[in-house]
Amino acid sequence: MSMSLPPPRVTDPAAFGRVAVLLGGDTSEREVSLDSGAGVLEALRSRGVDAQPVDGVPALLAALQAGRFDRVFNILHGGAGENGTVQGLLDALGVPYTGSGVLGSALTMDKIRTKQVWLSEGLPTPRYERLAKGADLRAAAARLGYPVFVKPSSEGSSVGVFRVLSEADLAPAIEFASRYDGELLMEQMVRGDELTVGILGDIALPSIRIVPAGEWYDYHAKYVAEDTQYLCPGLDGEDEAAIRDLALRAFRAAACSGWGRVDVMRDRERGLQLIEVNTAPGMTSHSLVPKAAAQLGCDYAGLCWRVLEQTL
């Protein structure tokens, strides 16, 4: 299945005016966001864009009230950057920004509600239990059946994720749940291939199959390890067409737009299973959307340009 990206809509960097690259913030994903933001900033400047870093939402608000910027490249991972807060602020101020709007951002930041929407649309996703504060994790795992994953419903970058193969492995997750104030998601573990599909506008990019050197794709494998393999495209022929179609349908069902990434597992028995959507994907040296865009001849700087074009 051959495909290509359409040509850029504009070639003059002056068309973007003054661009704030929103990064950092105060969430558990701060360091990843700083890394992503540094890459985006360098890429935009290499193309002649007047881009400046802005660390966190209070600094952004002050800068916009002072009239310093015309648009925002949002690479603030987690928290206010992805839960609809920044999007609502920028909508209220009439400032264009990259990525999904309020609804898509808020919905997909919550993994449980995203799954509820997908199920209502008949889209495949693993069985799960919603765990409120104080919930009985042992009882939930018994209902689902081992193995399971336990993770916060509204965090990213594999923060606070526990892989539970049997009841003997449940203690760390129970201890974490006792300290964590938000909802947790317990999800049936899918045994099979781990894949992801980047979305750019109305195009699903080539899938990537992730093959970590360890047993699973955790925070270390994502951001530190140099021996994780990324196979792109991740599937062949009709299977590749099917995963791209599913990812695009899932992205749209969750009211997302602009750009993002849909994580998918391929179960040996149940086929493709949707896991989650990321509306401000990583843009570090290890990140996946740039790898997929490169398969279509679009380098990192070109990808940043195309994402920013969507604000025009």
TrEMBL record:
EC number: 6.3.2.4
Protein name in UniProt: D-alanine--D-alanine ligase
This protein's pathway: Cell wall biogenesis; peptidoglycan biosynthesis
Pfam family membership, one: Dala_Dala_lig_N
Function, as annotated: Cell wall formation.
Residue ranges crossing the lipid bilayer per the database entry: none
A GO MF label: ligase activity
Cofactor(s) recorded in Swiss-Prot or TrEMBL: Mg(2+); Mn(2+)
The family this protein is said to belong to: Belongs to the D-alanine--D-alanine ligase family.
Protein keywords: ATP-binding, Cell shape, Cell wall biogenesis/degradation, Cytoplasm, Ligase, Nucleotide-binding, Peptidoglycan synthesis
Chief location category: cytoplasm
Catalyzed reactions: 2 D-alanine + ATP = D-alanyl-D-alanine + ADP + phosphate + H(+)
Annotated ATP-grasp domain residues: 115-309
Places the protein is found: Cytoplasm
